[in-house]
Amino acid sequence: MKYTEFKQLHMYRQAEHLLRHGHLLAERRQDSFRLRLFALGDFYAEEWCEWDETRILFIHLFQHPTGLHEYLEAIRLPKELGAR
Questions:
Q1: Burial of 14 (0-12, 13-18, 19+ CB in 10 A)
Q2: Is 0.70 surpassed by the pTM of this model?
Q3: Where are the domains of the chain?
Q4: pLDDT, tens digit, for every residue of 31-72?
Q5: Overall fold of domain 3-73
């Protein structure tokens, strides 16, 4: 799915699509929030939740790699992309 198509989905559908088709790259904590970074198609999605909650507050989308800066130390590539 392309960025523009994903952006048009309701947040509930975005979250569902991320879980089914996204590649979880990293997770981090920022203040009282849990952020999870997904790669999907031609963009990245950052899922924001309260630290001890499962309810998603919002999903931040970006395409430019500078958005990855806060995750660089924690990113783990999917096995199919890893070294052999």
A1: buried
A2: yes
A3: 3-73
A4: 999 999 999 989 999 999 998 888 999 999 999 888 888 887
A5: Viral Envelope Glycoprotein; domain 2 (3.30.67)
